[in-house]
Amino acid sequence: MLRPIVDWNAFVQTTLLTELTIETFRPFYEDSFRPLVGEAVFANQHGNWRADYRDQIAELHAPERHTYVAVAEAEDGIAGYVAWSVDPARRNDSVTILAVSAKHRRHHVGTALCEHAFEKMRTLGAEVVEIGTRGDPFHAPARALYERLGCIPLPVTVYYDSSEPKPLRDGCHHTRPGLGEYPSHSTSDTRLVPWGRT
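Request: output the structure for the sequence above.
Response:
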């Protein structure tokens, strides 16, 4: 069952969604991104990712700023949630976060949340919606979901360079140490959905 979070300032709601978000994305930050880019880049880009989410989630639902949240509830608690923002002038809206708890994945919760958000965006005049994800294995289920929903991928690569020495990869001939690549948080594999696409 989906419902908009109305009493967003309630401590319990903010706490539960924060816990769900940290649980959902911990494997990405700690097991994927961190080993790939090294400690210097990790610390600079996402060294405080847990605190960043705590700050972000507390501000997610603010209709006066055209930002919204909907929650999927199950008998045992929150199954997942989706957050989105609306740009009325451009008619271009964005899904900010989609998170589903591990025990509720592969039960179409993510699909229901996205469809709910898309419908809300349509009613607010959206012509295009953007969803940012990443190109790593952790985010493969998200990419598959967005493609099932009819979204169009736009691959983007971001390169990081730090002073932290790294060995050259096979086939690479760069001369500066620490050159790594990883999609950025908001732009990698961006999905654009024109309404009415078949």
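Residues 4-9, 171-194 have pLDDT under 50 and may be disordered.
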